[in-house]
Design goal:
By secondary structure, the protein is of the alpha/beta class. Helices cover 42% and strands 21% of the residues. The protein has 2 domains: 205 residues, Isopropylmalate Dehydrogenase (3-Layer(aba) Sandwich); 141 residues, Isopropylmalate Dehydrogenase (3-Layer(aba) Sandwich). The model has no long low-confidence stretch (mean pLDDT 98). The structure holds nicotinamide-adenine-dinucleotide (NAD), 3-isopropylmalic acid and manganese (II) ion (MN).
Amino acid sequence: TKLYKIAVIPGDGIGPEVIQEGVKVLEKAVELTDVRFDFHYFPWGCEYYLQHGRMMAEDGIEQLRQFDAIYLGAVGFPGVPDHISLWDLLLKIRKEFDQYVNIRPITLLDGAPCPLKNTGKEQVDMLFIRENSEGEYAGAGDWLFKGRDNETVLQTSVFSRKGTERIIRYAFETARKMGQSLTSISKGNALNYSMVFWDQVFAEVASEYPDVPTHSYLVDAASMLMIKQPERFQVVVTSNLFGDILTDLGAALAGGLGLAAGANINPERTHPSMFEPIHGSAPDIAGKGIANPLAAIWSASQMLEFFGYEELAGSVLKAIEQVMVEGAVLTPDMSGKAATSEVGDRVVEVLASMHAAAKAQA
Ligand code: NAD
Ligand code: IPM
Ligand code: MN
């Protein structure tokens, strides 16, 4: 039995509402296997900012460092400028803990709503690997001649050899392990430094993986193809900003933002990794108890997988799938009438009965 220390940061808006359901599922997992969790809650976010003038405790990063993983809801809420709230909490954690791999599965599970007709898992089954530490999110730039006629702002992208190579290599390793193709999405025609370099590094690393079939698309064409021919994509590697945008698009293909999960991984495991849904704090539905918790639950399942509980992680996904196929207990974004907590309860029930059935068979 291993005891994992989990830092829970519910955050803003619907963050706490969905995280509560994810924790429910993790607590059920504890009953079903020998995994043990010690949850520690951190009240950081926009309300904390309004009270304390900062998004997290001054030694927040040091406090988090001792945990095995971080489970985060969402950050950002009207009342605090987004660039402050995000840079001082979410993006800070990603950077400080060198979580340079952002894994975002875009898989159309059975029962999930898809805007495309005649489309299922055979067509939509991608694994996005988003660069998560630099690129367009380097945080570098300048604001010149403020308020003058020649006012000019610079937002600099940074693509280091190390940063570019490690994410592309990680993607090749993943594609090889999965026996799938790897698609690189870039924009070398217009971004004549950053993306030319990206394409060059991709070609270099590709030569070390002759067994992995590769494709390379420009980001504009790729966004069209994701809709028109999603089956072209298996493992995908792309830059920080492109990955951000394309995974919301992918989420729409695979059941909506309420179902889209993500993991921010530090592959060397020298720092904690962080698990969080792709969606934000959804101010438009916050406080109503109708947020879809499935994305947060799926992210929790990614955490189980990360700790080596692959089978249990798979069962959580199957439970999510069964709840959607049943269709009786779903939130309004999935055309249901259920509350957030009812969906969480149903996933836990299904998970428990699946486990009992498997045990009876054995
Ligand atoms: P959003 O993802 O919060 O919401 C977009 C739309 O999707 C809204 O209509 C919302 O109601 C819906 N939606 C999102 N999650 C849902 C769920 N679980 N169930 C049902 N519906 C859901 O994006 P936004 O409105 O652009 O951003 C709101 C705030 O969240 C901003 O401050 C933004 O910066 C922040 N944000 C944070 C994160 C994060 O913490 N990881 C991610 C994205 C956005
Ligand atoms: C995401 C979010 C963040 C990002 C924002 C809130 C900074 O949109 O996790 O997808 O752009 O990475
Ligand atoms: Mn995003």
